[in-house]
Amino acid sequence: MDNIRMSAERLEKRQTIELRKKHVGPSCKIFFSHDPIKIVRAKGQYMYDEKGQRYLDCINNVAHVGHCHPDVVKAGAQQMEQLNTNSRFLHDNLVLYAQRLQATLPDKLSVCYFVNSGSEANDLALRLAKQYTGHKDVITLDNAYHGHVSSLIDISPYKFHQLSDVEKNQSVHVALSPDVYRGKYRADHPDPATAYADEVKDMIEKVQGKGRKIAAFIAESLQSCGGQVIPPVGYYQKVAEHVRKAGGVFIADEVQVGFGRVGTHFWAFQLQGEDFVPDIVTMGKPIGNGHPMSCVVTTKEVAAAFLQMGMEYFNTFGGNPVSCAIGLAVLDVIEKEDLQGNALRVGRYLTDLLEKQKEKHPLVGDIRGRGLFVGVELVKDRLKLTPATAEAQEVIYRLKEQHILLSADGPHRNVLKFKPPMCFTTEDADLAVEQIDHILTELEEAGGLKLHNTLNAENESCKRKVTLLTI
To 5 degrees, how large is the angle CA 109–CA 88–CA 252? Predict the structure, then answer.
């Protein structure tokens, strides 16, 4: 262990912090800024600091098949020894990978553009949509995040909410997030999918009334930064119908949630049903297990329109032989180790454990997710849904002290996010939830929160609702 640590750590932690402050942009934030962790190696679902301390990684959906998976490392190293060049030369890796990737998608989605990050993929998707439709306006969801380049900050309310109205792009229109827990239409609504989709329909009509035209509706298949939001089934079908009727296309952003993470399906958009097929799908993060690569997949019709623009599309590193070798290895590992099946089994186990915590802890307002993409929303009051933001941050920091890495997100930063490497086990789930249980118990005792009071209030609320309905 000492030899590994010595080879991995070149500077003392204090020196690393000083050099980071001196040379790295101050807007580049770091986890646990008051006492950051220095990670020097990782394997599977575990990360290790400079002292050899092991941390359980519950948040890294980039290391999809596990940190430093030997098959992925070997594939990249072997190809790097032979050749790495651009896609203007023929190479089998590119076409074989495109073929393998397409086989996981509906037949209609058959044309690939390889790029290097989720941001690049979403930026290119917008270009494809605007060229195909000849329109400019884009509809995005509230609290969405699609990337860090200028075109994507414009369509990412998660980021641009902090800007003034003057700075916002007037061709971008923000629809309600289809959140059935704290949104406008909730779980008790008879048809939240239609209700939220009708909001998009109304928005389109208003935009058209101003003489503008919709190029695309873009959405994360499951919202991640927005707080692990799971859209009601049927919502995207109805939205796609409205958008296509207006001459636009539907872009599904799978950057956070693709490649089997949801367990029952390989792609999260498939949770909506077999009758829903986007016009463009973007993917990134887990695609290369930490290697910088991404992809846009679309229809032949959209690709043909992009060609007619007359401008060649070339990406220096997109689709290079090393990236494609790594991409193929990731797909092989997902299949060989049944990681999609593991996401389903362990995800259900984790969700069941968390549901029991909801029965026990008044701070737990909602448990939601699919597979190994799970959110725990903390609230101070289950009726008012008052966000327990400070408590969520306290949970994160205390878990870190127990060597468990978890994050909190959502518009109120009160949703604990589970999106671990796909090799996450039931034992890992037991460990994480056991510690969350202890922490919540201490926080509730300190705050005087008791579950029976919350349940009584909820029951009284239900009685009032029944009475109103009866009248």
Answer: 25
Q: Is 283 left (phi over 0), alpha (psi -120 to 50) or beta?
A: beta
Closest CA to 299 of 99, 102, 92, 94: 102
The first and second tokens of residue 312, run together, are 């060649």
* Residue whose structure tokens are 């609290």: 143
For the stretch 7-18, pLDDT in tens is 567 899 999 999
CA 132 to chain CA mean position, Å: 27
SS3 of the chain: helix, strand, coil, percent, to 5 = 45, 15, 40
User: Residue 281 carries which side chain, given as an amino acid letter?
Assistant: V
Cα–Cα dist 222/56, whole Å: 24
The strand pairing partners of 55, in sequence order, are 47
Region of residue 143 (left: phi > 0; alpha: psi -120 to 50; beta: else): left
The angle, 0 to 180 degrees and rounded to 10, between the axes of the packed helices 426-447 and 389-401 is 130
Measured CA to CA, the distance from residue 119 to residue 159 in angstroms comes to: 14
- As a three-state string, the secondary structure of 85-137 is CCCCCCCHHHHHHHHHHHCCCCCCCCEEEEECCHHHHHHHHHHHHHHHHCCCE
User: Would you state the pLDDT for residue 462?
Assistant: 44
| Separate counts of helices (H) and strands (E) for the chain | 15, 16
Task: Write the pLDDT tens digit of every residue in 230-246.
Answer: 999 999 999 999 999 99
C-alpha to C-alpha distance for 149 and 35, rounded to whole angstroms: 29
> Could you tell me if 294 and 287 are in contact, meaning their C-beta atoms sit under 8 angstroms apart?
yes
Q: What is the pTM of this model?
A: 0.93
pLDDT at 460: 42
Task: Let me know the angle formed at the C-alpha of 64 by 157 and 249, rounded to the nearest 5 degrees.
Answer: 40
CA distance 335 to 347: 18
Residue 120 in tokens = 């690049």
Alpha-helical regions (H) of 272-406:
300-308, 321-336, 339-360, 389-401
Q: Which two tokens stand for residue 323?
A: 């990236």
